[in-house]
Amino acid sequence: GAVRHRIRFNVEYMYREPDCHEHVVMGINGQFPGPTITAEAGDTLEILLTNKLSTEGTVIHWHGIRQYGTPWADGTAAISQCAIAPGETFNYTFTVDRPGTYFYHGHFGMQRAAGLYGSLIVNLPKGKKEPFHYDGEFNLLLSDWWHKSTHSQEVGLSSMPFRWINEPQSLLINGRGQYNCSLAASLIKTSLPQCKFRGNEQCAPQILHVDPNKTYRIRIASTTSLASLNLAIGDHKLVVVEADGNYVKPFIVDDIDIYSGESYSVLLTTNQDPKKNYWISVGVRGRPPNTPQGLTILNYKTISASVFPTSPPPITPQWDDYNRSKAFTYKILALKGTEQPPQHYDRRLFLLNTQNLVDGYTKWAINNVSLALPTTPYLGSIRFNVNGAFDPKSPPDNFSMDYDILKPPLNPNAKIGSGVYMFQFNQVVDVILQNANVMKGKNSEIHPWHLHGHDFWILGYGDGKFKQGDDSKFNLKNPPLRNTAVIFPHGWTALRFKADNPGVWAFHCHIEPHLHMGMGVIFAEAVQNVTSTIPRDAFACGILKKFLNKEHN
Ligand code: C2O
Ligand code: CU
């Protein structure tokens, strides 16, 4: 039967050597990444989160968990709750209703990039079987790491002139990476004094020990701040079987692309020479790479784990080979038996993604509005009907059809806003995410969009500008059900979801600096239908502080 897990999380800053260089990281209970939570579908998690940071608030978002009936536990500062003040404890209680590979992370300021994350694995209830077989499993949580503090990154992003964060110094696999130590170069038998692992260093790679001729499930999730990644295992094929907690039609690949906010399960069969070890490599795609590969080893237990692989690490596909990225992404389709999308929509939003200026500051905007979060969480202000907490006018449902997405904007100015898209209960909503050219030069970036509180069906992708009639090619038969979808440079992505979860949900680019620069929107769904009691400390801030004293004592 369903179990209730009581978990204590103390969020704190600590010294750590994630990539062999000492840095301050955000950790939980003295661990970085935070502890892995393992539960079974149907279980309830009760997480008592204490903020042990001395000078800033915090919250944690449970990425991929839909929070049916508990929208106040979504862990988004200024959206579902007030930031938890230093010294205070917040109780997140929610049900994990569906098996899958998930993770959790900070959702305030740039705390995710500071290291506030961990894995959340939901297994099938006992007695139930996955639609695929495996003998063992591993979990890889991928992230990117900077030597510049997130405080200084944040100040740079909000400064004039603008200072970009640049590329990460290291890629981390389960919080471990090697800066300035080419692990791979060791195979050329040069001695590399800067990387001498005895195995107990905080940055020593976590090795995957396997038996020959077995099948392993490898869970892979990306919580990168910026980097789009590609993962490969030397000489081995991967079979993709799960994406964002949903089963997909299995397909075989040499490597997978994974964008921030996504998760996958792949099956690996250990059918190669058992007298060798193999590299597992993670590299950057979608931006001119300036970060060495993240590496670890697949060790056949038949030999010692300290034997270096004889073949070089897999080469990450060229960063701007977008046709290759698209080919991978288009292969992801729902497994038979997955819930199909409604055949019609009630409302369709066209959201143009642009890089902008607001009073000279560099921002990202959606339909020319750059999101700035209010001081009172939306869930509280909408539920209790108080005016003045956010812009009362909804942002636009579409953008000018003569906007040229292939060129820098003629007028790059945008405005700051905190307005909300309001949906009625059970409305079927389509979102066409339209990518565009950046402010300078001919360029357009990748943006992985993540929706809280839901999965959506990805109905289609296309190059250029979405045109009338493009929806006749939508896949309504077996579109993948996911919570994160990428938009490719100068292209569009079409999503459909049902507004069946009363609450207020963020929908945003999962690249942390982009979100910080305003790249998101807020969806409010039938908030008057939120029946569960919202804990008072979830909304007792901003203008609701006073309201509370008046009406809620
Ligand atoms: Cu994983 Cu709103 O994010
Ligand atoms: Cu983005």
UniProtKB/TrEMBL annotation:
Assembly and oligomerization: Dimer.
Plastocyanin-like domain residues: 11-125, 138-301, 414-527
MF-aspect GO terms: copper ion binding; L-ascorbate oxidase activity
UniProt-listed InterPro entries: Cu-oxidase-like_N, Cu-oxidase_2nd, Cu-oxidase_C, Cu-oxidase_fam, Cu_oxidase_CS, Cu_oxidase_Cu_BS, Cupredoxin, CuRO_3_AAO
Family annotation (PROSITE patterns): MULTICOPPER_OXIDASE1, MULTICOPPER_OXIDASE2
Domain of life: Eukaryota
EC annotation from Swiss-Prot or TrEMBL: 1.10.3.3
Reaction catalysed by this enzyme: 4 L-ascorbate + O2 = 4 monodehydro-L-ascorbate radical + 2 H2O
UniProt name for this protein: L-ascorbate oxidase
Names of required cofactors: Cu cation
Family according to the record: Belongs to the multicopper oxidase family.
Any one GO BP annotation for this protein: response to virus
Main location: secreted
Organism expressing this protein natively: Glycine soja
An annotated GO cellular component: plasmodesma
UniProt keyword annotations, A-Z: Copper, Disulfide bond, Glycoprotein, Metal-binding, Oxidoreductase, Repeat, Secreted, Signal
Location within or outside the cell: Secreted
